[in-house]
Please model this.
Amino acid sequence: MIVGTASDVGKSWIVAGICRWLKNKNYQPAPFKSQNMSLNSFVTIYGKEIGRAQAVQAEACKLPCQVEMNPILLKPSGETKSQVVLNGVSIGNQTAKDYFLGNDKKQLFEAAKKAFNTLNKEFSPIVMEGAGSISELNLKHRDIVNMRMAKAANACVYLIADIDKGGVFGSVYGTIALLEDWEKQLLKGIIINKFRGDAALFDSGVKKLEEITGYPVLGVLPYAKDIFIEEEDSVALEQRKTTSSSEKLNVAVIKLNYISNYTDFQPLEQNENIHLYYTRVHSEINNADVIILPGTKNTLADFKALEEDGITAIIKQRYGSVPIIGICGGYQMMGKTISDPFEVESNLKNIKGLGLFNIDTVLTETKTTIQQEFQFKDHLQKCKGYEIHMGETKVPEGKHLNTINEIPEGYFDGKLSWGTYIHGIFDNSFVVEELLAIKYKEKETINYQEFKEQNYEKLAKLIGEHLDMDKILNDISLC
Model:
């Protein structure tokens, strides 16, 4: 199990790299994270929802993702509440207090162990991921994702520390010092992540860490800016660009408070001719050549916040002069009305949308989660994507954007702007090419799937060069 001294130390990234390294060595690995909190999610081939990080890790294993890889997913939908997804299906919303302090986590822990045991019968080794810090003393007695899960799985545990954050000695020593004796027995070593420069300069630091903790340092991984792996959650979003450029096609993603599945736009980020940035600043929205309203876990609350910030007025002003694109919740916002009769998101029963599209949306109690093959506009080539939404949208005949098995989907205004429920639509190269045509006559796009494969291989190579995998393999043979 890969655990951390804190959040955002690189656990998901390292798990993906270990998964691909093991796969290249002819093992049959699979990822596992019992509980994930993220608004970036994915859909399995059976229509079950899991965290995006485990879908990425499954891809690194060259496996289709399955619900057992992430049996519990929490999707924040307000300041104090989250939607709970159990075994790929939403079981409703809970407040943070009820979830973390309630007794129902006993049932969830049993579900997590069952999912792990199912995976463990088919794959070996299982590469497990923890969450946040393993030394949250106020929560650990109800923990179902870190050391209690490691004990249940009889896992070897490796502690990740991000040296780029500073204070690596205090974070590592303090984390281990706060562990109970049984937890310390599960811990097998320390991994230092994100070292800038010559790692030999940290040789004395390695010795000191081993001396004060009593555990071996199994690797010092470099800060690798040239390796791209899709991130898990919104922490990484804070590191994204926030201003426009004068040289490239400017694509502005409106930074919603409850933005979800922003991985939709990472293929655009990798195109050398596109400058993608996240913003709520009026001047930066006005600088955009393309404006995107992304998905959200709370469409109504996010739309009301956009109104209050004056952003809806700017979008309306720019409509007709630049493409306005809506994905999922952003698509719903572009219509005339959004109704929430069952109070799925809030007690706002009905609000007016942007009114750019002649559509009306009703939020439903049942969530749609499905992988899709579709045709984009008049292109005959099949595209791939997936849907995750709680809503039905009525579209006038002849105004659809996509076709799914001859069934219309999405909305196209016949000019520049469109909306869709399909996540992953920009993974399809000719959708990106259409955007590039706004500014360039001929610009090629990358094959995004090939791009991801190249980066999994680069990450596996880095793991092999800088992490003592022989020691780790020997450890797990004894567990």
Q: What stands out?
A: The CA atoms of residues 253 and 292 lie 5 Å apart. The mean pLDDT is 94. The longest strand covers residues 187-195. The two ends are 12 Å apart (CA to CA).
